[in-house]
Amino acid sequence: MKRGRMRIGIAVIIVVMLTGCGDLPNITEQQSDMIAEYAGGVLLRYSHRYDLRLVANDVDEDGIEDAKSAVSGEAVSTETPIETQEPEPENPTAKPEDADEPEPEPEPTEEPKVSLDDLYGIKGLTFSYNTAEYTNQYPKNSDTVEITPDEGQILYVVSFYIKNTSNKAIKVDLTTRAFHYELDVDGEKVLPAISLLPNGGLNYLMTTIQPGKTEEAVLIFNLDKSRNGAKGNTLTITEGDQTAEIKL
Questions:
Q1: Which of 231, 232, 120 is nearest to 178 (CA)?
Q2: 79-117, pLDDT tens digit by residue?
Q3: Which residues pair with 133 in a beta bridge?
Q4: Can you tell me the distance from the alpha carbon of 220 to that of 204, in angstroms, rounded to the nearest whole number?
């Protein structure tokens, strides 16, 4: 409390000096205001009768002044706050070690390409591609059979030769087999028509071939006239897991 009385006395002296008592060096108006403000604050700070003082009692009985804020009265900490480092978030894309890896989807496997002889597999017979042509009538100049396209279409005839290389007649019946014929014309898939030919055409071939003889068998496709003359067509013939591919 002695320190408090000393400060009050100093404040009183300063106030007296500012009111004109005593000789003072020349000071500016701003300096004078600062001194007056400080003196008034000291008087109010240590006046126990001033109910609105900034600090209720910041001096302990042992004479040690508490380190409190003049505004809030709370103790002001002089310790530097320790910054705590936030833990880094776990990688959201990381996969747990025990996570099951998805099984890769199996890649589509192409059916093995085989020759026509291997595909048809008839002992004593050989199969070979002959020609492919666009036409409005098949066969030409025939008195018995005449196949014509529907309106706005054109026929595309793919011809094959079947030769009997044995020394005996061979009966052929492909209607008991499961062949699939598909023509690719500029990405369009076309299936052959039912043939009215005497031997049934290649897709429904029923015939007997004599030793050393060759017989023609055809596939007939109906195409839009806009496809007339299209090049680079591909014919695939499939049975089971075997496929023969012919570039026409």
A1: 120
A2: 555 565 666 656 655 555 656 667 777 665 666 799 999
A3: 157
A4: 12
